[in-house]
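Narrative of activities, Objective 1.

The group set out to show that a structural description can be obtained from nothing but a protein's sequence at a throughput compatible with the screening campaign. Below is one input-output pair from the validation batch, recorded exactly as produced.
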Amino acid sequence: MNEDGSSAGKLIERYWEDLLEAEPMLGTAIGDERFDDRLPDPGPAGRAQRESLHRGALEELGSFEIGALDEDRRVSLDILEAIARRDLAALEHRTDRLSAVSHLWGPAGLVGELASLQRADTPERLDRYRARIAATPAFYDAELEIMREGIADGVTAPRIVAERALAQTERLLAAGADDSPALAPVPADDDAGRELLTRAIADHLLPALERYRAGVRDYLPNATETIGLSALPGGDAMYAAQILSWTTLELDAREVHELGTQDLERIQEERGRSAAILGYPDAATAEAGIAQHAAFRFASTDELKAVAEAQVRRSWDVAPAWFGRVPSANCEVRLVEAFREADMPFAFYNQPTEDGSRPGVYYVNGFDLERKPKHQLASTTYHEANPGHHFQVALEQEMDGRPAIRRFGGFLAGSAFTEGWGLYSERLADEMGLYEDESERLGMLDLQGMRAARLVVDTGIHALGWTRERAIATLEDAGLPTVEATIETDRYITMPGQALSYKIGQFEIERQRTAAAEREGAEFSLRAFHDRLLALGSLPLTALRRELAR
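Output recorded for this entry:
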């Protein structure tokens, strides 16, 4: 190994260790429990720590001749650079002034993260978890200070986001200590452990949440009536930074808007052809007709879970014909917990731990179930579970011998590859013969259209001054039921730019597949292409292009 290679390896290892210490919830997510007694520090000291970490790493990275390094180090440094630049942009623009009031992955969502990720099934783990619960007052107090800074700067979250965050906090407080979702990590038969944690929740978490609730109530009169970043001081630059952070590409918002408009038109034509196969004159009539039939609605959350499980099994069984490598274990299906189901999307995926103690989990949401179309679940399953996120994430983690940042950190560099793969997988599922009838295929096209509409709506909200009502209506026109269109819109308001990553990533993967087929001709193997793509892992799209072309 040359001197650059050795030095790069040391930087990669050191940066990842420092990142885990600065972002302790990251370790919890991947099964590294060393920092499970801590919470991140959102305050000035924590921000200074992260800035020093990232700036120092970038300065050191600049001394390497990247092209002379082996793939592991070359790609790992790509990920390191993307993570560092992404967090530095967030620090520069102080986007924490907005995320301090958020119903998704903000302070109000911390309890949900702990409930789904933390382990407390041994005395040592319980002790760490109790220490983490004891740290919640400092965490929430720091977030309250950030909220006050945002008010002083004139940079505040939209009212609808603050209202959702308040409602979520109210539900957590209403549960009390005895029924808190924060008890979930402690086994049901561990009476002593549950008693200890109940006391910690009562002594620390609930008072912290009460102060946070009071802070959000005080915040509401200062919340914006507008919903887009462009209406805020420095909002255009903030949105440009968010686009780069999520897509890993420098893209013009208006060009993305037009790209989405064109793609949505193409998909709407596809939806029309699918509707005709089903015997309807157009997609809107098909959706209305499907909605009238009980067979296309879930009778219960038990049925929702059972159907999802059957789809996961079916996709698992046929996958070997399309992939040379599959994960060592299939994923588990769970229902979204009642305390957070009103604010969460229809489905999402949580990655497994490295040691296998927590499986990959595909969550499905039973909230307002009678309004959720059954025929769209299949596409969602193939996006979130197999061959989508579960295959991509689990295989990435199973690549032994690679630097940890490459196996676990790719999603921190932006979500374009991850979400692009999920969206590509919905189309791939059609090639794999996984859709059981034309209604499920129409459901896939509905969701493809929704992702195209995301390009239109996200840029419309944050660059073009769209109203919430216009955004919801656009998503409804693309085929979403009102409840989903509303949840999706509020998600885009809360997480600017994230919604762009799906289609941008899918376009890139499809371009690379076409390029590989043209380059290899008769030698092209789609199975081998998938293996190569997933073996590279979650990279910034510029790095993905470079590596696939080598």
